[in-house]
Write a structure and sequence with these properties.
- The chain is built from 25 helices and 23 strands.
- The strands form five sheets. The protein has an eight-stranded mixed β-sheet with strand order 16-23-22-17-21-18-20-19, sandwiched between helices. A six-stranded antiparallel β-sheet has the order 3-2-12-5-6-9, with no helix packed on it. Strands 13-14-1-15 form a four-stranded antiparallel β-sheet, covered by helices on one side.
- Helix 8 runs antiparallel to helix 12, helix 10 runs antiparallel to helix 11 and helix 16 packs across helix 17.
C-alpha cells in the first residue's frame, strides 16, 4: 500500500478544514535543529563560563554584614518609673526605651557625629589590574587627614602610591577638576576660579599637600597593616552623603522572645569597616546615653527638692491653721463623724494631689521644650510617664537647634539650608509636643473624674454645722497638701536612688566581630548561573524564533498528517552536476527511490493494461518537478516501458539542455500547427524513452495547453506509448497544470525539503479532498538525512552497509559511533 493512502469517504466539513493546516510549531524539527547546532551551545557555554568567572573574580563587589546585640536594662532606665508609667493608663506595654534607642541609632545627629568623629567621609580603595576593592581604614598604611578649613573637591579620586624612603606619590585624575568645592567647616559648596590640573607630587608623612581643590596630609597608621598595597585610592564625600549612606545600611531589630534585646546590623563592602562602625556607634551611644541620664536626673533631683521646699511651707501653714481651729474653736472632737465618707474623700484627694503634681512636672517639661531649655530638662518620670518616642524627638530637637546655631553664622535666614533645618525642627517639635498633649489629656480626664467623685462624696458633709464643716475643709486641705508632699518625696527618693546608682542601661551582649563571615551578596553563584543560562538561552532563543517564523516543509510525518495525501516516495539530494541521476548513477539510493515511485504510481493510476498519463507539478518553480519528471521517465524507459517525456512548461523550458536536444521545434510549434508530431519527438540514449521539448516560448501558453489540439495530441501519444510523463507548470503560479490533470491517470505533486512553503499546499489539499483532483500523490524531493541510518520512505536506508554507490564515501557520524559502542557493550 502507498504510504499515507487511505479511504477518504464521508469526510466531515470539520475534517476538511483541518486538511492543509500545519502546526504553528514543529517540536521535532526544533529539537533536531537544537541537536544539529550543538557546537553553538558548546561555544556559548564556554563564553558564559569565562564571563561568569571574570565577573566573580574581577567585577562583583562583595557585600558583607556584621551584627551586634545589646540588652536594655529597663530597671535602670533613666526616664522610667514603671509603676507610675502613663502606658498603664493608656493600656500599653511596648518597649518604649528600645524604640528610643532605635531612633537614636538611626538619627542624623548620632550618625553625623560618628561621620565627623571617625572621618567616615574619607573612603579607601585599592585597584588591581581590573577590579577595585574597598578597604577598611585600618587596612591602609596611611590615613588621609583633610584640612577642614580648606575647600575640598569631593567624589574625586586621589591615588596614593608608596615610594622609597617612606614617601608617597599623590596623583590626581587626568580630568574632572571642579570649581565647585565643598567645605567641611560649614558643610556647603562654594565656587572658585578655574584652575589647571595639579601635577603629581611626592610627599612625606605629616607633610601637607595643597592644591586649589585639595588640602590634606598623610598620617601614618599606628598599626602596621597585614596587607601590602601597591596603591591606595581615596575618595572624599560630603557629610550629608556619608550620613545617608550609613543610615541606609544600618538595621535595628528586636529579639522575638525578649523585646529588650536589640540586634543591630550593618552592611558594607568591607567586613572590618562594618565591625568597627557598629562597635564605635554603640560606644558613643552608651556615652551619650549616660551623660543625658546624669544631667536629667540631676535636674530632676533639683526640681523635686525645690518643689518639696514649696510644698513643705504650704504643709506647715496648713498644719498651723488646723491647730488654731482645734484650740480656738474647740473643734478637735466632732461627734457623729462619717469616717467612711471622710476616708473615701481623703483617698480621692490623694490621687488628685498626685495628678496635679505630675501635671506641674509636665508643664515644666513643656516649658523646657518650648523655650529650648534642654539643659534644665527634667525626667519624664517626674511627670509619671515614659515615652521613648518623646525622648528621641527631644534628643533630635536638641541636636537640630545646635545645628541651626552653626548654620545661622553662615547662611541668611531665608536660605535653603536654614529653611530645611527649620522644617526638621518643626517636625521634631510637633512629635514631642504631641506626646505631651496626649499625656496632658489623659491627666485632665482623670482629674475631672476624681473631682466628680469628690463632689459626690462631699455631698454627705452638707448636714454638718458651719463650724464643723470649716474644720473638715481645713483638714481635707491639709491631707491633700500632705499627699502631694509624700508623692514628691517618693519621686525624690527614686531620683536620688537612680542618681546614686547611675550606670549605663545599655549592655553589649555580643560585640561585632570579624569571624571570617562570608559575603551576603551579591548572589555570585546565582549571577554566574544566570550568565551561563543566558548564554545558552541565546542560541536556543534564536533557534526558537527561527522555528516559529519558519514556514518551510521540513517534516515528512507532519506533511502526511496535514495533507492526508498519499506519499509516493522520498528523493534524496542530487549530487550530480546534471539532472540525469538514474542514467549516470543507476546504483545510487536516489535511483532506487525513483524505482520505488515507479512502483507506487500503479496504485494511483488503477488498471495496468492501458497507457498512463502522469502529470508532474509543484507549487512554484525550483521544487524539482523537471528533475523528477526526467528521472521518472528515465526509470520507466529503463524498465522496458515505452515512455515519452513532454516539456509542457511552455513559460520556462528546461528539458532540452539535459538531453542535448535542440529546442527550436517543440510542443508550442505543434500546438500552433507549425509542425507534426514526428518533428517534435526526439530520441534519447534510452531506447524506450523519447522526449518532446517545449519549444520556443509562445505568447499564449495557457490557451495552447487548454486547446482541443493539445487534448488530441495526448490521445495520439497514448496510442504510441505506455507512459506519458508531462512536466507541467507550477500550480501555485498558473492554472495550466489543473487543466492537464483532467486528462491524466496519475498526478505527482512535488514538495521540496526545506524549500516549499507550508501555505502553498493549502490549495492543492483542498482540491484533493473536495474531489476536484483525483489520483494525486506527493513526492518529497531533496531530502537530506543527517542521521546516517533509518528508513525514509524509500530513501536513506543502507548508508554504511555497502548497498549503494554512496556507501564507499560514507563516514559514520560521531553520535552513531557512540551509540554503536554502547550497544556493543550491553549486547555482550
Amino acid at each position: 500500500m502507498i504510504p499515507g493512502k487511505e479511504t477518504l469517504v464521508g469526510k466531515s466539513e470539520v475534517q476538511k478544514e483541518k486538511y492543509g493546516s500545519f502546526a504553528l510549531f514543529d517540536v521535532e524539527h526544533f529539537l533536531r535543529r537544537v541537536l544539529r547546532n550543538w557546537y553553538w551551545f558548546v561555544l556559548m557555554l564556554s563564553i558564559g563560563y569565562v564571563t561568569s568567572w571574570f565577573y566573580g573574580k574581577y567585577y562583583a563587589q562583595n557585600i558583607f554584614s556584621s551584627s551586634l546585640s545589646l540588652s536594655i536594662s529597663s530597671n535602670t532606665a533613666s526616664y522610667f518609673t514603671p509603676s507610675q508609667s502613663i502606658n498603664f493608663i493608656w493600656g500599653q506595654n511596648g518597649n518604649q526605651d528600645g524604640v528610643y534607642l532605635k531612633k537614636m541609632l538611626l538619627s542624623r545627629s548620632h550618625n553625623e557625629f560618628l561621620v565627623k568623629e571617625l572621618n567616615l567621609f574619607t573612603n579607601y580603595q585599592t585597584k588591581g589590574v581590573i577590579k577595585s576593592t574597598f578597604l577598611d581604614k585600618g587596612d591602609s598604611p596611611v590615613f588621609l587627614e583633610v584640612d577642614r578649613k580648606h575647600l575640598q573637591q569631593v567624589n574625586y579620586s586621589i591615588t596614593i602610591t608608596p615610594r622609597a624612603n617612606g614617601s608617597f606619590e599623590v596623583s590626581l585624575p587626568e580630568e574632572g577638576e571642579s570649581t565647585s568645592l565643598y567645605s567641611y567647616d560649614f558643610e556647603g559648596f562654594q565656587n572658585i576660579e578655574p584652575f589647571k590640573r595639579p601635577a603629581n607630587k611626592i610627599i612625606k608623612i605629616n607633610e601637607w599637600y595643597t592644591s586649589p581643590n585639595l588640602r590634606f596630609k598623610l598620617v601614618s597608621n599606628p598599626v602596621k597593616p597585614s596587607i601590602k598595597l601597591e596603591n591606595i585610592i581615596v575618595n572624599l564625600s560630603t557629610v550629608n552623603d556619608a550620613v545617608n549612606g550609613i543610615v541606609s545600611t544600618v538595621g535595628v531589630d528586636f529579639d522575638k522572645e525578649i523585646n529588650t534585646i536589640m540586634i543591630i546590623s550593618k552592611t558594607g563592602y568591607n567586613l572590618n569597616s562594618t565591625v568597627n562602625f557598629l562597635n564605635k556607634s554603640v560606644q558613643e551611644l552608651q556615652k551619650k546615653r549616660f551623660m543625658d541620664k546624669t544631667t536629667i536626673d540631676k535636674n530632676t533631683n533639683v526640681y523635686l527638692k525645690e518643689s518639696l521646699a514649696d510644698i513643705r511651707k504650704k504643709l506647715d501653714s496648713s498644719a498651723a491653721y488646723l491647730n488654731y481651729l482645734k484650740v480656738s474653736e474647740k473643734l478637735y472632737d466632732i461627734t457623729n463623724r462619717d469616717e467612711k465618707s471622710l476616708e473615701k474623700i481623703k483617698n480621692f484627694e490623694a490621687k488628685k494631689a498626685d495628678i496635679l503634681s505630675k501635671m506641674n512636672s509636665l508643664s515644666s517639661i513643656r516649658n523646657s521644650v518650648e523655650s529650648q531649655g534642654f539643659d534644665k530638662m527634667i525626667s519624664p518620670s517626674a511627670a509619671g510617664f515614659d515615652d521613648g518616642l518623646f525622648t528621641a524627638s527631644v534628643s533630635e530637637l536638641k541636636a537640630l537647634y545646635l545645628k541651626k546655631r552653626e548654620l545661622s553664622s553662615i547662611y541668611t535666614p531665608n536660605s535653603e539650608p536654614i529653611k530645611e533645618i527649620n522644617r526638621l525642627i518643626s517636625e521634631a517639635k510637633t512629635n514631642s509636643t504631641g506626646s505631651l498633649r496626649n499625656v496632658y489629656t489623659v491627666y485632665t480626664t482623670e482629674l475631672n473624674k476624681i473631682n466628680q467623685q469628690i463632689a459626690e462624696a462631699s455631698s454627705d458633709l452638707t448636714t454638718y454645722p458651719e463650724k464643723q464643716r470649716k474644720y473638715l475643709d481645713a483638714e481635707r486641705g491639709y491631707n491633700m497638701i500632705e499627699a502631694t508632699y509624700n508623692s514628691l518625696l517618693n519621686r525624690q527618693n527614686e531620683s536620688q536612688m537612680r542618681l546614686a546608682t547611675n550606670q549605663s542601661d545599655i549592655t553589649v551582649i555580643d560585640p561585632a566581630k570579624n569571624l571570617g563571615q562570608g559575603p551576603i551578596g551579591p548572589n555570585i553563584k546565582g549571577t554566574k548561573m544566570a550568565i551561563i543560562g543566558g548564554c545558552l538561552a541565546l542560541p536556543l532563543l534564536l533557534i526558537l524564533i527561527g522555528s516559529l517564523f519558519d514556514s518551510k516543509i521540513r517534516n515528512i510525518k507532519e506533511l502526511i498528517s496535514a495533507t492526508r495525501i498519499p506519499l509516493l516516495g522520498v528523493i534524496g539530494n542530487n549530487n550530480n552536476e546534471n539532472m540525469l541521476t538514474v542514467l549516470e548513477s543507476p546504483k545510487s539510493s536516489v535511483a532506487e527511490a525513483f524505482r520505488g515511485i515507479r512502483a507506487n504510481v500503479r496504485f494511483l493510476s488503477g488498471e495496468d493494461n492501458k497507457s498512463k498519463v502522469i502529470v508532474v507539478t509543484s507549487s512554484v518553480g525550483g521544487e524539482g518537478k523537471t528533475y523528477i519528471s526526467i528521472n521518472l521517465a528515465s526509470v520507466l524507459g529503463l524498465g522496458d516501458k515505452k515512455t515519452i517525456l513532454l516539456g509542457m512548461d511552455l513559460r520556462k523550458p528546461k528539458i532540452f539542455g539535459d538531453f542535448n536536444i535542440d529546442n527550436k521545434l517543440g510542443i508550442s510549434n505543434y500546438l500552433t500547427g507549425e509542425t507534426t508530431i514526428d518533428q517534435i519527438i526526439n530520441k534519447t540514449n534510452i531506447p524506450n524513452l523519447d522526449v518532446a521539448t517545449s519549444g520556443p516560448i509562445p505568447p499564449n501558453p495557457s490557451e495552447l495547453l487548454m486547446s482541443e489540439r493539445n487534448v488530441k495530441f495526448i490521445e495520439e501519444l497514448k496510442e504510441l506509448y505506455d507512459f506519458i510523463i508531462i512536466d507541467s507548470p507550477p500550480v501555485g503560479l498558473v492554472a495550466d497544470a489543473y487543466e492537464l490533470m483532467k486528462y491524466s491517470d496519475a498526478n505527482l505533486y512535488i514538495v521540496r525539503h526545506e524549500y516549499t512553503e507550508k501555505y502553498m499546499l493549502k490549495m492543492i489539499t483542498e482540491k484533493y479532498h473536495n474531489n476536484e483532483i483525483k489520483h494525486l500523490g506527493l513526492v518529497y524531493n531533496d531530502y537530506v538525512t543527517k542521521q546516517g541510518y533509518g528508513y525514509g520512505y524509500g530513501y536513506g536506508y543502507g548508508y554504511g552497509y555497502g548497498y549503494f554507490d554512496e556507501d564507499k564515501n560514507y563516514k559514520e557520524p560521531l553520535l552513531i559511533k557512540v551509540r554503536n559502542k554502547i550497544r556493543a557493550i550491553f549486547n555482550r
